[in-house]
Amino acid sequence: MSHEDALVNQLDFGPEGTDLLPVVTQDRLSREVLILSWVNRQALEASRNSGYATYWSRSRNQLWKKGETSGHVLKLCEIRVNCEQNSLLFVVDQVGSGACHAIRADGQPHFSCYYRRLNGDDSLTVVDE
């Protein structure tokens, strides 16, 4: 049976469970994309067990429960798997002011990590202030 038709989890995190898969995180109400990050088997299981989005931080080489220090956590509503079973979608409710670790001028986090638009001249424009 192909991945496209499978109704059984066939996500491949490698033999040690440490290979990373991309995960898009989307706000449940607005459907806005909040974050693109990574999960390994440990991060996916931590997310499922806690009910909160947990990722694998490539820069820190460790589990990263989003909002653990800021309080701006992402409550999992649903986990979806793409057709080829090589990426995930976390549908979440935001608890706090925003999903991004970057801070706006008013001291609050951006709602989404995708808060800047790329212009034709390669400049960036903030679109969510």
Description:
By secondary structure, the chain is mostly beta strands. The chain has a domain at 21-97: Phosphoribosyl-AMP cyclohydrolase (Ubiquitin-like (UB roll), Roll), CATH 3.10.20. Helix content is 8%, strand content 35%. It is built from 1 helix and 8 strands; from the N terminus they run E-E-H-E-E-E-E-E-E. It has one helix spanning 41-50, and strands at 21-27, 33-39, 54-57, 62-65, 73-81, 88-95, 116-118, 124-126. The strands form 3 sheets. Strands 2-1-6-5 form a 4-stranded mixed beta sheet, with helices on one face. The chain has a two-stranded antiparallel ribbon with strand order 3-4. Strands 7-8 form a two-stranded antiparallel sheet. A hairpin with a 4-residue loop joins strand 3 (54-57) and strand 4. The longest helix is centred in the middle third of the chain and has 10 residues, at 41-50.
Strand order of the largest sheet: 2-1-6-5
CATH architecture of the domain at 21-97: Roll
Give the end-to-end Cα distance, rounded to a whole number of Å. Answer: 47 Å
Using the CA coordinates, give the radius of gyration: 16 Å
CATH topology of the domain at 21-97: Ubiquitin-like (UB roll)
Largest sheet, if any? 4 strands, mixed
Which band does the percent of strand residues land in?
25-35%
Structural class, judged by helices and strands? mainly beta
Global mean pLDDT: 92
| Number of helical elements | 1
pLDDT < 50 stretches: none
CATH class of the domain at 21-97, please? Alpha Beta
- Shape from CA axes? globular
User: What is the H/E string?
Assistant: EEHEEEEEE
Report the strand count: 8
What is the CATH H-level superfamily of the domain at 21-97?
A: Phosphoribosyl-AMP cyclohydrolase
Proportion of helical residues: under 10%
